[in-house]
Amino acid sequence: MVLTQERDYLRRPSRLSDTYFRRFPAAAESLSTRWRRYNQTREEPFDPESSGDAYLFVPDRMSVGNTTIEVVAVQAGLVPGHGRTLEPPRWRSSVATGV
User: N or C: which end of the chain has fewer CB within 10 A?
Assistant: First the structure.
């Protein structure tokens, strides 16, 4: 599995949903609890990893954000992740054997 944030990343609550979605209470409610659902879902891949059933590619540090539009910066952010796929094949052996 490939994660796009650091291992310890947690989303924080946003107060903007109440302000911007006053006329749409269901949308405001959904957005106000989105951080909690995101964090719960984000924990799910770590269980199979700890039992050896999955290998996670997790960035050590994200050098770009979700609003980065500079092509050079985005490409530079991909280099460390690509390098990790070329590491010794400890993850490949578990995939090949189904362990």
Answer: C
